[in-house]
TrEMBL record:
<dbReference type="GO" id="GO:0005385">
    <property type="term" value="F:zinc ion transmembrane transporter activity"/>
</dbReference>
<dbReference type="InterPro" id="IPR004698">
    <property type="entry name" value="Zn/Fe_permease_fun/pln"/>
</dbReference>
<feature type="signal peptide">
    <location>
        <begin position="1"/>
        <end position="22"/>
    </location>
</feature>
<feature type="transmembrane region" description="Helical">
    <location>
        <begin position="228"/>
        <end position="255"/>
    </location>
</feature>
<keyword id="KW-0472">Membrane</keyword>
<protein>
    <recommendedName>
        <fullName>Solute carrier family 39 (Zinc transporter), member 1/2/3</fullName>
    </recommendedName>
</protein>
<keyword id="KW-0732">Signal</keyword>
<feature type="transmembrane region" description="Helical">
    <location>
        <begin position="74"/>
        <end position="95"/>
    </location>
</feature>
<keyword id="KW-0813">Transport</keyword>
<feature type="transmembrane region" description="Helical">
    <location>
        <begin position="293"/>
        <end position="312"/>
    </location>
</feature>
<feature type="transmembrane region" description="Helical">
    <location>
        <begin position="195"/>
        <end position="216"/>
    </location>
</feature>
<keyword id="KW-1133">Transmembrane helix</keyword>
<feature type="transmembrane region" description="Helical">
    <location>
        <begin position="38"/>
        <end position="62"/>
    </location>
</feature>
<comment type="similarity">
    <text>Belongs to the ZIP transporter (TC 2.A.5) family.</text>
</comment>
<feature type="transmembrane region" description="Helical">
    <location>
        <begin position="107"/>
        <end position="132"/>
    </location>
</feature>
<keyword id="KW-0812">Transmembrane</keyword>
<dbReference type="Pfam" id="PF02535">
    <property type="entry name" value="Zip"/>
</dbReference>
Amino acid sequence: MISPHKIILLIAAASATAAAAAEDPTEAEAHGNKSDALKLKLVAIASILTAGGLGASFPLLGRKLAALRPENHIFLMVKAFAGGVVLATGFVHILPDAFRSLTSPKFPFSGFIAMAAAIATLMVDTVATSFYGNAHPSKDEEVAGDADSVSGPNGTTQSEILRQRIISQVLEVGMVVHSVVIGISLGAARSAATIKPLLIALCFHQFFEGMGLGGCISQARFEWLKTVVMTVFFSVTAPVGIGIGIGISTVGVTVEGVFESASAGILIYMALVDLLAADFMSPRMQNNVKLQLGAHTSLLLGAGSMSFLAMWA
């Protein structure tokens, strides 16, 4: 039989334990951090969705604003800036993370996967161009412009438009994969202090990437419905990634590293070959020193701005 003094001691011990638990702020603080982090993630979904949509839509305004039409120099400057952004995204943002996720003392898997993805993109680019060219044998036929067309002074050939459509579709694939991955990274973050700078960086990140994609979509001259679908699809991918990140506590680093490596290879190829080389090596730029200077400056500003964001993203 338990004596009265032992009962008193047990009650006192239980009371002391309960008081200590009540005074210990660790559990309450952790709950508060999770709540604050979730609120920031919901804000991030709306903010990044808006930033991506605005960035992708901005070059498309060229169909209505004369200053932003593809035949004007301003549009070329914007495209060079966006090309620098995409290039820095692949080299500075994605590839280093991929190397950290797929570290191996025996073989550099990240570099190999990035190289394979770039080669695969080249093959797809070549085969798709050949396929569309054979499907449309009248390569020199000029496209008849409508009220919303953005044809240059000499007209735009069918083959050029088909080429731009392939470029925009392949570029969107690389950007979509990357957007989902970075969205997952933000959604899986547990600290509000980590999310705040990442939220700001990713808003700029999606805006600039959207500008690069929107420039290609504008030159491709898709029907309005497909233009809207491609723009919306790019805009929602990062928020979807955030939602996935919220639903999972950890992301498999190996799978993430594979996706990051492939995405880096695709974006680096697209930035150098399709976004930059096609314009920088064109007679239009080769014969205009002022245009070359402006385009090179825009390229460096785009790459520098995106590289600077790597301090937080």
